[in-house]
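Supplementary notes for students who missed Thursday's class. We covered one full example, reproduced here. Read the sequence, then the structure, then the short commentary at the end.
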Amino acid sequence: MRGRMALISLALLFGCQPTERSVKIGLLIPNSATGELATYAKYVQDGVTLAAKSKNFRVKGMRIEFVYPERYSGDPTTTADALRELKEKGAKVIIGPITSSEAKAILPVLSEIKIPVILPAATLNSLTDNEWVWRVSISNRQMAVATAYTAKDFLKLKEVGIVAFSNNPYSLELAEAFRNWAEAHALKISKFVEISGNSSNLNSALDEIVKSFTSKPESTGVFLPLYYDEAAKGIRYLRDKGYKGIVLGGDGWDVPKIVELVGKNAGENYFITHFNPYDPQSADFVEKYKAEYGSLPSSFSALGYDAFLVAYEAINKARGVRTMTVADIRDALLFLSVDGVTGRIEYSSQSRNPDTKGSVLVKFSDVGFQFVRRIAVSPIF
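Structure (token representation):
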């Protein structure tokens, strides 16, 4: 009898321990990307991991477990399948994808898959029209309005020329929203040029714009809503041609490599983005990030960090533990407020965008990137 009891005790001790509960967060972040997308993906991943570490990888007494697609390069033709894979692996909420083209690719299948998706950095305006999609970053419209406001009221420019890539929705949305705000607020648009994306077309478009100016060069600006590699070519061309005005851009410039690509005599340039490591309000996050990774965080790092905070708070506020469903997390997101590194993120039943969130103005010159100011994006703009 005594032996049997001992065996039962051993069985209870070693064989019948309760399994620790976990909640799975799917990371729809490229793990086999190349080029600039690989850079963005690493920044976002590092931000997510640092945020999870700050919460000890636990929420509501459960262990946080990240699940990933087996192999995902960021190719939009495979994004929907990667999302399905994460749902099949038990994810209750998704962080990612990173780019707007990837995010667009999952919209048609979300009504079938039904899982909350938190976009760290995809800025295309229409993405959050889907009831399962929330955005952490500001949208293209918010970014363009902040840029146009900066041109007129902060930099006091008299006229601006715009170049947009016709085959790039990011470029077109920024360009059109900038023009719309400018025309409504008496900022002259001297020339609006749409081109296909190649360097020879860009150079001729810039020549057109510079010739169209009637004000002194120092009172003019060129808006280049392009990604950093093409923007660098445009800035370099303008400076080599002797242009002395200001060149403006969006968050697509926010990669330190643009400084190297433009080189010396970069002139005076400004861009709107989500975060800057030299912003005094970001000092605590920057120190934590440097201690963990030995380098400065980028906007993508900060947006990844905030995307995790949004997912964490949604899980924390969702009903139940054992019975928690994706619908419970979706319902929690409807009225969520989070103080993030990139600003206050607030959602409502009417909007899955952080509509009241501000942005950051950064100056780019021969000394590199410099934090200038935070800008509050108001609906009245």
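Commentary. The radius of gyration is 23 Å. Residues 22-138+282-350 form a domain with the Rossmann fold fold (CATH 3.40.50.2300). If anything here is unclear, bring it to office hours.
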